[in-house]
Amino acid sequence: MTEKELIQTAVKMLDMAYAPYSHFPVGAALECDDGTVYTGCNIENAAFGPTICAERTAIAKAVSEGHRSFRRIAIAGRCEQLCVPCGTCRQVLREFAPDIEVICLNGKGEARHFALKELLPESFGPEYL
């Protein structure tokens, strides 16, 4: 999948988001090392704690299908700022893909590329256990 297609896939997921409380939809497209792509959207809950982010939705879908290594993820939002992953999502990405490329988009379609190590420096991983 090309980068443009991955980004378009993440943007399409914005329409699938369930965000009645924050009104902040997020879409994600996660590319595995073998080229398989899993999508995700944020799914909010009235109790807030059970809310799951788009990135973790995509990761859960991929892992539940047997994938454990990921190449890149595109994360789309509709706001003016870049839609960057929250701290929890950064840590979950780190568990499986410490070298993943993270493509963050804003509502205008502008993108910025990060290495996860830029977003989560000095991270804690399985090798510490």
What attributes does this structure have?
single chain, alpha+beta, 5-stranded mixed sheet, Cytidine Deaminase, domain 2, 5 strands
Describe the structure.
- The chain is an alpha+beta fold.
- It has one domain: Cytidine Deaminase, domain 2 (3-Layer(aba) Sandwich).
- It has 4 helices and 5 strands.
- Strands 2-1-3-4-5 form a 5-stranded mixed β-sheet.
- A hairpin with a 5-residue loop joins strand 4 and strand 5.
- The chain is globular, with a radius of gyration of 14 Å.
- It starts with a helix and ends in a 10-residue tail after the last helix.
- The mean pLDDT is 97.
- It catalyses: cytidine + H2O + H(+) = uridine + NH4(+); 2'-deoxycytidine + H2O + H(+) = 2'-deoxyuridine + NH4(+).
- One of its GO terms (molecular function) is identical protein binding.
- It is an enzyme of class 3 (hydrolase).
